[in-house]
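Page 47, continued from p. 46.
Same chain as before, 158 aa.
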Amino acid sequence: MTSQFFNYNKGKVIQALRYHFISRPEIKVMIILVNVFSIIAAGLFFLKKVSPMAFLVSSVLWFALMLAFWFLLPLTIYKMSSTFQQRLKATFGKDEFTIENEKGSRSWLWKEFTATMESPHFFHLYFDSRSFFIVPKEAFLEQEIPMARKVLAEKIKK
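Result:
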């Protein structure tokens, strides 16, 4: 199944990168721990058991964490990757996934991928927990999207 040529939409890519970060187990645990710490600090501050500084530190930590995972990391990765600036075409073949542009193409066997995830606008194809490729759903005709899901489910076993 071959897509049409597509360009990445910056806003949608940033959203897809947020999905990636928030879906990572280690980041989920860290966010939960920081939120619990902040709630406990707020409760203890309200009961006058801790100083305002402890509450301020927990609030700043929470704010910095959200800022990093929601804005800084996705924007940094978007800017560092030249892939998002190119016009590409994706092919979900029988034995491989191929991405091409005007200069050439690159293929990966399906067995090289370890997992797949779907976000509202993209299919995420993972090589490992940190390396992945995103293919916009806009690259396919509306009626081809269910077939793309099926191919990914059959070819990439979790």
